[in-house]
Structures are given as structure tokens and as C-alpha cells.
């Protein structure tokens, strides 16, 4: 997925983090197409876990500082994303790599990202017009 103009928040550091996440998702999608992906998947889950701590924290502080109307909704949805990744990490360490489940997670992440970034994160733009 590309960071299209309508997904930009106008905050360069937030947009750069969003771009990095979209690239990581695309990169793992390609890796998955090319076959066995247990180690890359573990690295991808690790990236998503750290991303869920670092980016979400930075973005939540930015929304709070600018008194963004979407601040509460943003926190709630981040929590749900973190839960989704935590559940998949726990499953992965119990049962191992499963390409079907990895594909399903990618689909959920795609849907989550386009909706969350397009409806919640972009509300930062009102505080900081492009
Ligand atoms: Fe967000
Ligand atoms: Fe975000």
C-alpha cells in the first residue's frame, strides 16, 4: 500500500513512520509469496510489536499536544491493534509458522491500516493543514 496524499497527516515524522510501516507490510507480503517465511515472519511480528510501542506513543503524544479531536479514538484503536499482534505472537510461539494465518494477518493489517490511517490518523491534518 502506498502513502497516498489523502493518508498524509502533514506531520513529517508521523508520515515517515506510516510510510515505513506500509513498506514493511509490502516487503513481508513479497517474502510470503516467495515461500518459507518462518524467520522473516518472526522478524515482522517483532517489528509490529516495536512499532506498536514506539509509533503509537509518538502519535498519541502528538494528538494530545495538539488537542486533536480523534485522540481518544486513536488510543483505543492502537490498543486493539496491539492486542491483535500480541495474540498472533503468542500463537506463533505456541504453534509455529502457518502461511494461511500469516496471509490472514496481512489482510487484517491492510484493512486496519487503510481504515485507521484514513479516518483517525488523518484527523491530525486539521491541526496542521498541509
Ligand atoms: Fe493512529
Ligand atoms: Fe499512525
Describe it:
This protein is an all-alpha fold and 130 residues long. The protein has one domain: Four Helix Bundle (Hemerythrin (Met), subunit A) (Up-down Bundle). The longest helix is centred in the middle third of the chain and has 28 residues, at 38-65. It has helices spanning 12-33, 38-65, 71-95, 99-119. α2 (38-65) runs antiparallel to α3 (71-95) and α3 (71-95) runs antiparallel to α4. It binds fe (ii) ion (2 copies).
Strand content: under 5%
CATH superfamily: Hemerythrin-like
Give the termini separation: 21 Å
What is the CATH C level class, in words?
Mainly Alpha
The arrangement of helices and strands along the chain is HHHH
- Label the CATH architecture: Up-down Bundle
**Which regions contain 5 or more consecutive residues with pLDDT less than 50?**
none
The small molecules bound here are: fe (ii) ion
* Strand segment tally: 0
Number of helices: 4
* Mass-distribution shape: elongated
From the 3D structure, determine the CATH topology.
Answer: Four Helix Bundle (Hemerythrin (Met), subunit A)
Radius of gyration: 15 Å
Biggest β-sheet, characterized?
Answer: none
Mean pLDDT: 94
Q: In terms of structural class, how would the helical and strand content be classed?
A: mainly alpha
Helicity level: over 70%
Number of domains: 1
Amino acid at each position: 500500500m502506498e502513502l497516498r496524499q489523502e493518508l498524509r497527516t502533514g506531520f513529517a515524522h508521523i508520515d515517515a513512520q506510516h510510510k515505513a510501516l506500509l513498506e514493511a507490510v509490502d516487503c513481508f507480503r513479497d517474502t510470503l509469496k516467495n515461500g518459507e517465511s518462518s524467520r522473516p515472519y518472526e522478524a515482522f511480528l517483532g517489528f509490529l510489536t516495536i512499532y506498536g510501542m514506539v509509533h503509537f506513543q509518538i502519535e498519541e503524544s502528538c494528538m494530545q499536544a495538539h488537542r486533536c479531536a480523534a485522540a481518544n479514538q486513536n488510543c483505543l484503536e492502537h490498543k486493539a491493534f496491539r492486542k491483535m499482534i500480541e495474540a498472533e505472537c503468542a500463537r506463533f510461539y505456541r504453534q509455529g509458522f502457518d502461511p494461511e494465518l500469516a496471509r490472514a494477518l496481512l489482510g487484517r493489517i491492510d484493512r486496519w491500516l487503510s481504515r485507521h490511517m484514513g479516518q483517525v490518523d488523518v484527523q491530525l491534518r486539521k491541526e496542521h493543514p498541509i
